[in-house]
Amino acid sequence: MNITVVGAGNGGLALAGFLGMRGYKVTLYNRSLKRILPFMKSKTIKLEGEVNGKVTIENITTDLKEALENAQLIMIVVPAFAHADIAKKVAEYVKDGQVFVLNPGRTFGALEFWSVLKSLDVKKEIIVAEAQTFLFASRTSNPGVSHIFRIKNAVPVSALPSKKNTLLKEILEEVLPEFQVVDSTLYTSFNNIGAVFHPATLILNSGRVESTYGKFEFYLEGITFSVAKVLEKIDQERCHVARTLGIEPMTAVEWLNYAYDVQGSNLYDAIHNNSGYQGIIAPPSLQNRYIFEDVPMSLVPISSMGKKLGLDTPAIDSIIYLASIMMNRDFYREGRTLERLDIKDRTIDEIKNLLFEGV
């Protein structure tokens, strides 16, 4: 199987190397040349941490047409705010039988991606899917070198529409058996744990980030007992929205056990029992995807769906509001609201039918 990884950041570099080590023909695409130039000629990726070794992959390129030419599986590993733009760019190169997986989709990522392709009159028989989270906790340590702190035990994934899940499973279980196909993208979207862990932790540590340039461990030092209580409240609101939609969510504590085999009587304990978070340093500034991705593409759609259901989400809304003040932006206006996704006027049953049947 020919696989293309779109995006050579922290996640994309690790995934390209990982898939190359599993013996697949991998092409790594990145929009800008600067990030991939140091290792473009050698086509060599080095993995450190939980996986160690060097692998030479098939191709590294900035030419999207070339990258997609022979690809059956396209793993999109870019921040969620870039999903719509990537959909616009790939539209003219899409071929029948291709599978596009957003790693991860955050909340309603597959719906946004699929809607953009439809608006551009793409009629090819393809699969668009979203993962609930990214397979690794990883960071790029040097050009062409990725440190994988931990590989998650399992990652839920679903196609849109869900009726294509059987075909998705046939393709993914060969390549990444860690992926577990679930009923629908409602499950992957509203089990978005990044929405719980990332933006609030960064906002509540903003003074420390700005004064130290992020020189502390993001999860193990940044999530103190008091910060964890805020995360638990955000998690409760997320789960309330999910259950009202008819989805039985994993709580953040349950997810940590599912993904990392760690336990705890509360979220603080579970996070601090996770060895996979050791050594993950905080972002050096607030200009980071934990805000620019996870606020508009994770928290905003959860809040927006909550409003449609008549549910209050005060903790989530407070983080959106604080992030908007700090970044001098209106994330409610920019984010994946139900209006922007063109599902505001649909009933819940109609939204579910769209996600399950594609109509």
Description:
The strands form two sheets. This protein has an eight-stranded mixed sheet with strand order 5-2-1-6-7-8-11-12, sandwiched between helices. Strands 4-3-10-9 form a four-stranded mixed sheet, with helices on one face. It is built from 17 helices and twelve strands. α4 packs parallel to α5. The chain is globular. The two termini are 30 Å apart. The longest helix is centred in the middle third of the chain and has 20 residues. The chain has two domains: 189 residues, NAD(P)-binding Rossmann-like Domain (Rossmann fold, 3-Layer(aba) Sandwich), CATH 3.40.50.720; 164 residues, N-(1-d-carboxylethyl)-l-norvaline Dehydrogenase, domain 2, CATH 1.10.1040. By secondary structure, it is α/β, with parallel strands linked by helices.
CATH H-level superfamily of the largest domain: NAD(P)-binding Rossmann-like Domain
CATH domain class of the largest domain: Alpha Beta
* H and E order: EHEHEEEHEHEHEEEEHEHHHHHHHHHHH
Give the overall form.
globular
How far apart are the termini?
30 Å
